[in-house]
Amino acid sequence: MNELIDYALEEQEEDARPELTSHIENLNQYDTIFVGYPLWWYDLPQVMYSFFDEYDFSGKTIIPFDVHNGSRLSDTVAAIQELEPDAAVITDGFAVSHNNAPDASEDVVDWLEEIGF
User: Fold this and answer.
1) How far apart are alpha carbons 59 and 66 in whole angstroms?
2) Residue 3 — φ and ψ, nearest 5°?
3) What's residue 2's pLDDT?
4) Which residues of the chain have pLDDT under 70?
5) Comparing C-alpha atoms, which of 98, 97, 60, 96 is closest to residue 80?
6) DSSP string covering 27-43
7) pLDDT given for residue 1 in this prediction
8) Where are the domains of the chain?
9) Which one of 58, 87, 101, 111 is at 20 to 30 Å from 32 when CA atoms are compared?
10) Which of 68, 59, 58 is nearest to 93 (CA)?
11) Phi, psi values for residue 94, rounded to 5°
12) Given this model, what pLDDT does residue 79 score?
């Protein structure tokens, strides 16, 4: 696990943009996109920067959610807003500690209801 954590920090320090291994063919047919990610070093994983570089979310609603180790969403909502200025980014995204993720289904349902889903 420490190797992965160290690798994530190295990518972040280099501002890496890892290549995406798959692509969304039909993003234009969606108005609302749920974007989930693990929180690494208080930020989005670098591959998420690649993701936002590749796709234009103008006019779409982005709903972020993450799994973290104590930092909740950190500043990732602001980062997504900066990367996608022409999208509506929901600021009350869902965040769950990795320790609680296996038992979070009721919390997820409650959150989805709170945001109108």
Assistant:
1) 23
2) -60, -45
3) 82
4) 1
5) 60
6) GGG-SEEEEEEE-BTTB
7) 67
8) 2-19+30-109
9) 101
10) 68
11) -95, 135
12) 98
